[in-house]
Design brief:
- By secondary structure, the protein is of the alpha+beta class.
- The chain has 30 helices and 14 strands.
- It has a five-stranded mixed sheet with strand order 6-7-5-8-9, with helices on both faces. A five-stranded mixed sheet has the order 11-12-10-13-14, with helices on both faces. A four-stranded antiparallel sheet has the order 1-4-3-2, sandwiched between helices.
- Strand 8, helix 8 and strand 9 form a beta-alpha-beta unit.
- Helix 19 runs antiparallel to helix 20 and helix 27 runs antiparallel to helix 28.
- The protein is flat, with a radius of gyration of 32 Å.
């Protein structure tokens, strides 16, 4: 077994110049008194360098020395990854003396700063996952604050998220492997551009550029569901807005991390798969279901005390108020009636005694016409009636807010009466905030009002899944399908529940029904293709995975994970004997996630089979067991490639480790038995073949090998 920690960072690569550009550029300014410093990665994946640098680049490649243009005050320093040129540092402006320094000194600085970049890379690498660490995250947060301070245009939103995937294991080895699997899984889901960091103990940091809090919550919800589907026990997410903040404050990055951590602590209280966004006082004041002031509640209680039939209306001007014109319009029509209770210059409650929902609608239509005749901004209304189901009078102001939120779905100048749909919408608000328990309570109330509401049933099912209540979720989706047999979301989600319960045939049938409803849904195509692979239906797997791959490349509907799809597409093509297509798919998977041990191992085996370089094949298979030495098949493929390379000692060691981890690995036992035969040790070979037949009595290759020894 290999230690599950990687302390060697590896040489600098062109990708490192992109990933660590913030820290590297800052270091360049520390080294050289210049005005601008730009890193230019050089590699096959980077494409052609800028036209203006090509002549100078040719000189650097020929002479292995920097290039200086004294007239333009420009210095091109080669950045070395060992003996390989991996990029350029382009320096311009600043002190003129810099551009007159001797070439020997400049060459020395080129190698010194290359070494400095390598040390920075090493200091930023987490040994457990191979991801960048908290030091790198802090640098990115600090640089983001500086960019805001220097920017004159509109600020680009960004959010910081802390994701907890905590392992509950008995020892450090299993804990580390759980965290490594989480890191690899997240890297495949997110890709390199999502800035994934491991801060230690299963806490991952994500920095999302161009994403505001609402978008981050939606993305976080999707991420948690994916982790649930990957059989992680728990996953929680704490989110905070990075912009705007005051970059001049000392410790601004620490404050942001503290906000995200506090949000994560709240998420832990909300369920096994939940999230929470950092809440400010302004957020509380603007929440759609904010608390009604006690002074207003007292006035309302006085109005409906002793009343047996009435409607309560919450009016809100659709635009932000510029004056007190809205309240003046209300007073003009209603006078000083006690039935009007002003909240502020934008909102007011209106008490309609003796009116049920329909009568209130008619009265409010006439009221709206009169308000329009006066002129002014449009307004929306949320109506709650009494009596209604078993809701108490005290809950009516909140129900008005839920009805008002319902009305916003129809745009400005709208009206909604509180009903089951209002509760579905309020449940969605709490769900999007990560408060799963409150969301479930809203959905349950909505279902009491309308037991056949399929949208609520689906929402309840999804929340129940995230709260680890599969029986309740199953009942919701089955009831939804009883009402709408072709409901896509019920079919899709019920398939996951069946799969988790080891009901593979049922899951497959449900997803095939869902495919007939929507054949262009990337998430469905991805998971159906994966299930086809597991069932050995590789032709069907390849078809749906290629369709999913095409949709993801077009970047049309959301969903689907490019690296995951590429990995499983490679497996399907490999099983079908289409090795060239499989190699291309695995290469894509590895380029997006260099720590994908399964793809590395399979890619190494195919390189060896296709005679595309035994050294590369050995390196890939060796890297796979370094990353994940607990998977028997990785050791088998390493042993296979070693045997093909005539390294019998290495192959025997790898195959023995494979069989130690899983004695039922028949292919490894046969290969090891064959090596024993070559070494004239038939007794050991016979013993191995016999063991295989004890596990698999009908396994023909073992029968034939044993018969040949008789």
């Amino acid at each position: 077994m290999t230690i599950p920690l990687l302390f060697a960072a590896g040489p600098l690569t062109p990708a490192d110049l992109r990933r660590f550009s913030t820290l590297f550029t800052k270091t360049a300014f520390d080294f050289f008194p210049c005005e601008t410093a730009e890193l230019v990665p050089l590699g096959e994946e980077e494409g052609e360098p800028p036209v203006e640098l090509r002549d100078a680049l040719e000189q650097i490649r020929d002479n292995h020395l920097p290039v200086v243009d004294t007239q333009r005050q420009e210095l091109l320093l080669p950045i070395w990854g060992g003996e390989v040129l991996c990029g350029l540092l382009v320096i311009q402006g600043g002190e003129a003396e810099l551009y007159g320094m001797p070439m020997v000194w400049l060459d020395e600085q080129s190698h010194i700063i290359s070494r400095e970049f390598y040390l920075l890379k090493q200091s930023c690498q987490d040994p457990a996952t191979g991801l960048v660490n908290g030091f790198h995250l802090r640098g990115e947060l600090e640089a983001l604050g500086q960019e805001e301070a220097e920017s004159s245009g509109p600020l680009v939103p960004a959010t910081l998220a802390l994701l907890e995937v905590y392992p509950r294991t008995r020892d450090a080895d299993r804990s580390l492997r759980y965290i490594v699997r989480a890191g690899s899984c997240l890297a495949s889901m997110l890709g390199e551009e999502m800035h994934l960091h491991h801060l230690g103990a299963g806490i991952f940091g994500l920095l999302w550029y161009g994403v505001d809090m609402e978008q981050a919550r939606q993305f976080g919800e999707s991420l948690l569901l994916r982790l649930k589907r990957e059989n992680f026990v728990t996953a929680r997410l704490g989110i905070t807005t990075v912009t705007p903040h005051d970059p001049k404050e000392s410790g601004a990055p620490e404050q942001l991390l503290e906000q995200a951590w506090q949000a994560l602590r709240t998420a832990r209280l909300r369920g096994p798969f939940s999230l929470c966004g950092h809440v400010t006082a302004k957020d509380i004041e603007s929440h759609p279901f904010r608390k009604t002031p006690e002074s207003t509640l007292r006035k309302l209680r006085a109005l409906y005390r002793g009343k047996s039939l009435f409607s309560l209306v919450l009016l809100r001007m659709d635009q932000e108020p510029a004056s007190n014109h809205f309240s003046k319009r209300l007073r003009t029509l209603l006078g000083q009636e006690k039935s009007l209770v002003l909240l502020n210059q934008r909102e007011a409650f209106l008490f309609l005694d003796g009116l049920d929902g329909e009568a209130a609608r008619a009265w409010l239509k006439d009221f709206r016409d009169k308000m329009e005749s006066i002129g002014g901004s449009s307004f929306s209304m949320g109506v709650a009636t009494f009596p209604f189901h078993d809701f108490k009078k005290s809950i009516l102001p909140l129900n008005c807010r839920k009805a008002l939120q319902h009305a916003t779905f129809s745009g400005p100048d709208s009206l909604a009466v509180f009903d089951a749909v209002s509760l579905n919408i309020s449940g969605d608000v709490y769900y999007n905030e990560g408060d799963l328990v409150k969301a479930l309570g809203e959905y349950r109330q909505g279902l009491l009002l309308e037991p056949g509401n399929v949208n609520i049933l689906n929402s309840m099912g999804v929340v129940s899944i995230q709260l680890n209540r599969p029986k309740a979720a199953r009942a919701c989706f089955q009831k939804a399908l009883g009402i709408e047999p072709r409901n896509f979301m019920a079919l899709f989600n019920l398939g996951f529940i069946c799969l988790e319960g080891d009901e593979v045939a049922e899951a497959l049938a449900l997803w095939e029904r869902a495919l007939a409803v929507d054949g262009e849904h990337p998430d469905l195509l991805q998971h159906l293709g994966m299930l086809y692979c597991r069932q050995g239906r590789y032709g069907e797997a390849r078809e749906v995975l290629e369709r999913c791959d095409g949709l993801i490349k077009k970047d049309s509907p959301p969903g689907g994970e490019p690296m995951v799809v590429a990995r499983w597409l490679g497996r399907a093509c490999e099983a079908l004997g289409e090795h060239a297509l499989a190699i291309a798919a695995y290469q894509r998977a590895v380029s997006g996630n260099p720590r994908d041990a399964g793809s590395l191992s399979r890619l190494g085996r195919l390189y060896a089979l296709e005679k595309q370089g035994h050294d590369i094949a050995l390196a890939l298979c060796g890297q796979a067991v370094e990353l994940d030495g607990s998977t028997p098949s990785h050791w088998y493929r390493l042993g296979l490639v070693q045997a093909m390379n005539e390294d019998q000692d290495g192959a025997m060691e790898s195959l023995a480790e494979c069989l130690r981890l899983d004695p039922r690995q028949a292919e490894a036992a046969l290969l090891l038995g064959g090596i024993f035969e070559q070494q004239a040790r038939p007794g050991k070979a016979r013993k191995l073949y016999g063991k295989v037949l004890r596990y698999f009595p009908e396994y023909a290759p073992a029968q034939a090998a044993l018969a040949a020894l008789s």
